[in-house]
Amino acid sequence: MIKLTIDHTEVRVPEGTTVLNAARQAGIRIPSLCYLEGVHVVGGCRVCLVEVEGAKALQASCSMPVSEGLRIRTSTPKVRAARRTVMELLLSDHEGDCQTCVRSHDCEFLEEARDLDIRELHFTGAKHHRIIDQSTPALDRDSAKCIMCRRCITVCSDIQATGALWAQDRGFECVAAPAFGQMLDRVACVQCGQCAAVCPTAAITEKDHIERVWAALADPTKHVIVQTAPAIRAGLGECFGMPVGSLVTGKMAAALRRLGFAGVFDTNFTADLTILEEGTELLMRLKAALVDQAPVALPQYTSCCPGWIKFAEHYHEDLLPNLSTAKSPQQMFGALAKTYYAESLGMKAEDLYVVSVMPCTAKKFEAQRPEMNASGCQDVDAVLTTRELGRMITQSGLDFAALPDEPMDQPMGMSSGAADIFANTGGVMEAALRTVWCLVTGQPFPFEKLHVAPIEGLEGVKEIALTIPSALPEWSFLAGQTLRVAVAHGLANAEKLVEQVQSGQKAYHFIEVMACPGGCIGGGGQPRFTTNDVRRERMRAIFAEDEGKPVRMSHENPAMAALYRDFLGAPLGEKSHHLLHTHYQPRGVHH
């Protein structure tokens, strides 16, 4: 432990701690715009300057490690004047349309300017050339609002291993953009939205679907229904000042009903369906390999995350046969809504308008993929992020915190606890293991409270090996086999795992990949700002939702039995194949 003094207060922190984090532990807030927890320490924005006794110049607290006996002052006249000058210089080159900016209510840049009490700007002159990039289905860029904090670059390269954004040009002309200043749709961007999640301004935002949803709700010819992803219930409350990790499932359903949706359903319904389809697909691949001795693509990779799918299409074309053919729960829901549900209402597919609420910007890209039209038209018509739904509820004048708890509508609102944990990294794998174990062995799942602890939590890559002690006659070939599975979140972690598998260092049967750190609870469309502490609280809420359900395994959801009996037939059957499965396409690394 290192002892130092910050603003006349003695502080003890572990060796290696930065001055910025030491101050935060002491309850002293130092402003910062470029810093990202555990990742980004370039000291580039210079807003976090502090005075160090004995030093000739002010120091960037985010990149300066503590040392024994250090004496720090965080709010001397010299420090305050320097921070104000830095902020004024940044503001002088910023497009200041705060009255109409989508980030005006949660703009870190504006908040820091207010905290420094900046009321006028003393610097005028040329500004960056403005480039508006609306080329992708999921993300919009406005270069005039970029302050070159480089957070987006760090996330894109270090966390997501894609490098779609980089510092282009030099000096005053420097801007965060795709290579050679291209539009975002011309590079290998996976649309995950982590750049938008960490951007302190509105330089990168999600493609706004709010107005198209309002228009659909006002159209008397449309029957507008909504599905809500598992992670939304543990994040939406933050949009209204509720504590991080607040479970708001019932209030969310009530709000959506009051917004005018004719059906309020749950993506969890098709998360359970995904487990049955994807789990059966895994068992069929294992049977082909072990019984038929046939060449088969193993390990099988999950296909729920559109950011991961697009990453594989760009960078690992050889892996496409290994990806599960099962669509994501969002797209399964859209296909069923416009067939199974539409038929129950006596409607045509085109009469329904399906809205998704997702923690993910890549879902906007996924919804418009040409493969996603099993119903004969686009299966999912619009995708709102958690943040966008928060804005819609605010626009409607609803007092969210005061709303009663209401249930989801049926038949597509019933789900198991296993579906809830899709929100967390490791959740899809845990849900699959619960069902596969029980279907194969006929025995209870052998983990306390059904939780597979080794694949939970925020470690970048997790794994477990399960030996199947005995099996029912249909699956007798699995008796005594050891099932090896792995989980990765954050595409840089996934890339390392893929390299280990392809080099022969590691061998698995089933691998879950989620593009965003923490899984969907840390998605690019979730309320800002998502730190590891925030991720843990949201994950805790999701596990609580799971544990509170009367049914906690996907195959025990009675709605699944009815769906297969009345409509689909059987997992991997002809109708399931048409509606619930898809294919992927090589994209190369340049577009």
From TrEMBL:
One GO-annotated biological process of the protein: ATP synthesis coupled electron transport
Domain 2Fe-2S ferredoxin-type: 1-78
SMART domains on file: Fe_hyd_SSU, NADH-G_4Fe-4S_3
Cofactor(s) essential for the protein: [2Fe-2S] cluster; [4Fe-4S] cluster
Domain 4Fe-4S ferredoxin-type stretches: 135-167, 180-209
Annotated compartments: Membrane
Gene Ontology MF, one: iron ion binding
InterPro entries reported for this sequence: 2Fe-2S_ferredoxin-like_sf (IPR036010), 2Fe-2S_ferredoxin-type (IPR001041), 4Fe4S_Fe-S-bd (IPR017896), 4Fe4S_Fe_S_CS (IPR017900), Cytosolic_Fe-S_CAF (IPR050340), Fe_hydrogenase (IPR009016), Fe_hydrogenase_lsu_C (IPR004108), Fe_hydrogenase_ssu (IPR003149)
Keywords: 2Fe-2S, 4Fe-4S, Iron, Iron-sulfur, Membrane, Metal-binding, NAD, Repeat, Translocase
Domain 4Fe-4S His(Cys)3-ligated-type: 78-117
A GO CC term attached to the entry: membrane
Family matches, as Gene3D superfamilies: 3.10.20.740, 3.30.70.20, 3.40.50.1780, Fe-only Hydrogenase (Larger Subunit), Chain L, domain 3, Iron hydrogenase, small subunit
Cited Pfam families: Fe_hyd_lg_C, Fe_hyd_SSU, Fer2_4, Fer4, NADH-G_4Fe-4S_3
Assigned protein family: Belongs to the complex I 75 kDa subunit family.
The protein's name: Iron hydrogenase small subunit
Organism: Candidatus Geothrix odensensis
